Amino acid sequence: TATADAAGNVIDTGANAVVTGANVQGGSVNAAGTADLTATVGNVDGIVVLAGGAVTALAEQSVTGASFTSTGSLVSVTATQGSVTATDVNAFDTATVWANIDIVDGSVTALGDATLTAYTGEINGTTVQTDAAATLWAAQDLTGTSVDATNAYLTAGWDLTGNAVDAVEAAVLTATQDVTGNEVDALTIVVA
Reduced to 3 states, what is the DSSP secondary structure of residue 168? Predict the structure, then answer.
């Protein structure tokens, strides 16, 4: 725990890892157990995390240019006030990415459900691959994503455009305004 920034640390432990600072920036975490990262004031930025247990990353502002992998459990990434940008998530179980503003670029891979929420903004250019359900929800536009899942649910408060969706069973695309220019391959397709 740092009262200022936790930056540039290389942590390798056979147990659990907890990293807390005003900002959590750079470096890496390799933990046999869980890995918990918290930026109490600012950002989680440019860090690589690999853990056998659950991985959680919580930033008061944004999460950018990071990589979070759990080889045996879930991954949860939260940007309380900002966005999640150019961040890769790899989960053995479920993967959850929540941003107050936008989710832009990066990738989410999970054996369990993958859930992405852009609470006040958009989801743009993110790749999602899961063996279960993929749920993407954006208050504004949902554009340029690539989704591969058993079931895919894409919902946009504004437009849903230019997405590539491959679902084994169902693909459900819902937008308040336009649903245009999407490429969808699924057993059942619903556009609303």
Answer: strand
> Does residue 1 have a pLDDT over 70?
no
Residue in the block written with tokens 């556009």: 191
Alpha-carbon distance of 166 to 183, in angstroms, equals: 8
164-189 pLDDT tens trace: 999 999 999 999 999 999 999 999 99
Answer yes or no: are the C-beta atoms of 99 and 80 closer than 8 Å. no
The Cα 110–Cα 119 span in angstroms is 21
How far apart CA 53 and CA 106 sit, in angstroms, is 22
Establish how many alpha carbons lie within 13 A of residue 72's alpha carbon, considering only the half-sphere containing its beta carbon.
8
Rg of the chain in Å (alpha carbons) = 17
pTM for this predicted structure: 0.96
pLDDT at 5: 83
